[in-house]
């Protein structure tokens, strides 16, 4: 296998006397997508949160291109785009203003063009002037995804990105993730959609009772 861009070793997380994650290892190389699957409560979101540094593991470590991964560090944020829960969008910025701000804040070259392309792809053109509070829940999910796609990134980390998307939205998401791989980026995908995982992921890590690599 190619050198891993993301390396996760021995992630262990306990809540009280419950061990949710016990020594999880995984690698994701550039141009590769790895899926994380398992039943509700098996620790998928906890694993992603520990990997990106939003939660502190009791043991273990994640590195991105050899640097300890913590989404709060500027040199990591340059390379990392994360979509977990829907973002708290600025209430008084429209769709296009929000995306423009995110793209420019992360020093996206050609921010204006990238934002325009992504708004079209993600199907938000008609509502691009609207405030987040006036969007449907699926449109808000699309805006959260678009917020990741307008910033520079080498690794994309997604927690159930298919949630609340319609059939066309999930199909688009699959194509977009394949394009991420083709562009040499790495994707780590938590999903409850077996068809999406099958379409996009090169390997699967299973959490819960049937844990293991698939
Ligand atoms: N801060 C916390 N304190 C106590 N327990 C927690 C905490 N965060 C998560 N847990 C527990 O850890 C377990 C794993 O939760 P997690 O959200 O990682 O599961 P998941 O696999 O992502 O589930 P789902 O498929 O429902 O999204 C659950 O039993 C949950 O209750």
TrEMBL record:
A Pfam short name: ABC_tran
Record's keyword terms, sorted: ATP-binding, Nucleotide-binding, Transport
Gene Ontology MF terms: ATP binding
Source organism superkingdom: Bacteria
InterPro entries: AAA+_ATPase, ABC_transporter-like_ATP-bd, ABC_transporter-like_CS, P-loop_NTPase
CDD domains attached to this UniProt entry: ABC_DR_subfamily_A
All copies of domain ABC transporter, residue ranges: 6-214
Family: Belongs to the ABC transporter superfamily.
Entry protein name: ABC transporter ATP-binding protein
Classification of source organism: Bacteria, Bacillati, Actinomycetota, Actinomycetes, Propionibacteriales
């Amino acid at each position: 296998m190619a050198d891993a861009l993301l390396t996760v070793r021995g992630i262990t997380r306990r809540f009280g006397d419950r061990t949710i994650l016990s020594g999880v290892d995984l690698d994701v190389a550039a141009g590769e997508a790895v899926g994380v699957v398992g039943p509700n409560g098996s620790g998928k979101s906890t694993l992603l949160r520990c990997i990106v540094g939003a939660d502190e593991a009791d043991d273990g470590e994640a590195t991105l291109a050899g640097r300890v991964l913590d989404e709060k560090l500027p040199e990591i944020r340059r390379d990392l785009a994360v979509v977990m829960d829907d973002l708290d969008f600025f209430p008084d910025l429209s769709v296009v203003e929000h995306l423009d701000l995110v793209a420019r804040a992360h020093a996206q070259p050609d921010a204006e063009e990238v934002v325009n392309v992504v708004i079209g792809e993600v199907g938000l053109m008609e509502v691009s002037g609207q405030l987040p509070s006036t969007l449907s829940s699926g449109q808000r999910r699309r805006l959260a995804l678009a917020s990741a796609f307008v910033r520079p990134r080498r690794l994309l980390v997604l927690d159930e990105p298919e949630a609340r998307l319609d059939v066309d939205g999930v199909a688009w998401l699959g194509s977009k993730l394949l394009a991420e791989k083709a562009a040499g980026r790495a994707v780590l995908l938590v999903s409850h959609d077996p068809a999406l995982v099958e379409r996009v992921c090169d390997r699967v890590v299973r959490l819960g009772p049937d844990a293991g690599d698939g």
